[in-house]
Amino acid sequence: MKILVCISNVPDTTTKIKFKEDNKVFDTTGVQWIINPWDELALTRALELKEGSGGKIEKVSVALVGDKSSEPTIRKALAIGADDAFRVDTDPGDSFYVATQLKEIAKDYDIVLCGIESSDYTSSAVGGMLSEMLEWPSVSSVSRLNIEGDDVSIRREIDGGQEIVSSQMPFVGIVQKGIALEPRIPAMRGIMMARKKPLNVLEPIEAETLTEYENFEMPPPKAAVKLVDEENVKELVELLKNEAKAI
Amino acid sequence: MNFNFTEEQEMIRQAARDFAQRELIKDVIERDEKAIFPTQHVKMLKELGFLGMMVDPAYGGGGMDTLSYVLAMEEISKVDSSVAVIMSVHNSLVCYGIEKWGTEEQKEKYLKIMASGEKIGAFLLSEPEAGSDATSQRTMAEDKGDHYLVNGTKNWITNANCGEIYILIAQTHPEKKHHGINAFIVDKETTGISLAPHEDKMGMRSSDTHSVMFSDVKIPKENRIGEDGFGFKFAMKILEGGRIGIAAQALGIAGGALERSIQYSKERKAFGKLISQHQAIAFKLSDMAVKIEAGKNFTYKAAWLKDEGQQYGVAGAMAKQYCADMAMEVTTDAVQIHGGYGYVKEYHVERLMREAKLTQIYEGTSEIQKIVISRALLKD
Description:
The complex is a heterodimer. Chain A is α/β, with parallel strands linked by helices. Chain A is about 25% helix and about 30% strand.
């Protein structure tokens, strides 16, 4: 059995976001790149499953669509414990384009895990598109994943509760927080081994990019907080009604 | 000149940072206050491979360079120098000493279990009356033919309790003064070794520091490191490398203080604006950053020289002296920026200030570093 974890190369979550070219392009100057946090949790769970499988899971691979500059992120995944990696050598474009590229790699695996969204463009679409292209079942919002015999047992988060479902393999799991406690810190040995593990660079296959970014806007700055004395409910109501226009 | 870190060095720095900011930060104040030994964290150091990280992979180590070690020490010291000093003594003093000067048998028997972090090392040089003046060793290792018989007391020993493998420096031929000193590998479980109570220190309170007493302790002949009388030279050589680790620790302490000061000054308001917008504070932050940058250049260069196989003794002494004194200044400024909050434990900077003080004292005081540097300058 083999697991593929699809990873994205995203700006560190503390990055100050800036745009250029009339706010059409994200300015990557000085940006630190990391594995998309949800993908990193998916990788952590995949490694836990492999370690607990008694050899049943033979390998965990990672796949990423991006140029050479994304290789440090891939090697971090290898340092954490992935056995090998694939990089499709092209700009990620949009979700449809990325899913099309990943499909070719994913078809050889039994379980494919994707983060529920990437922390940069948050389209939340690759996992769903990928399962559709593969014609495999998929489950989203997965917060627990176990292998039981030939099936996978899944817990997913739904409005007001949780749902427990099972799926046959092959399948695509779109995972969110809770799938693993926290991402692993790579050990020194893993860091030294990372360069020795296979990193396969693939040429992109022809596909369309169906979306384009017209303009980015920064969210409005946070308004100052007004503190109202706890005994002065009348003033609070007044402010909510007339100033915040919330009621 | 290439000032860029390699991808591996950057990954190691980030791994150490994640470990420090995610794991060490929890309960660090309580560990310091109650002098609780960080047992769990030392276990994590082992699992992550920070113990023995520079040892040759042939002996089970990480095979990393000194610069990687410096970056790891720096990030860990930003949060908890007690953990950093455990790592520093184990790596820079004990593992390095045995790897560089030990016999193949000694490496097989002792280095392998230390490189994996299974056992921790301690370095026993200081004595009640031989600190900076390390030539005045009173602990005796009498040559009894097939073994050495050791009697005496060692002071201020980091890892004395958690450590299981000691490197002991002791006098064998007093008439030869420092040329009569030897170094030995000692198993802590050997009969006749006892520990005094844990020292109640000002800072780095959760590392275990004890005096160690030797009473008729038999050490096998094959546990001596190097030729008869090599001990003093051995100790001085080891301390040359140790200084780089302590410089990195001081650098981390200062860096941690600056990070906290930047954060605080962007949150705290006074006279109607953030204190970072007052020039008095902004300039202080600038001065701190300039000093830390200078300290990085000293320390990284010393590490680089060591990795290149060049002389690094004076560079290490400069790095240690500058960074220790600088960490004291920077942490004092950090407390000042925090005002009253800086003087209470919750905001961490008072602890960093207490930790900085020790870097000016141990592994060669700032004054001893000046002796090393000036002697090199004045050498004919």
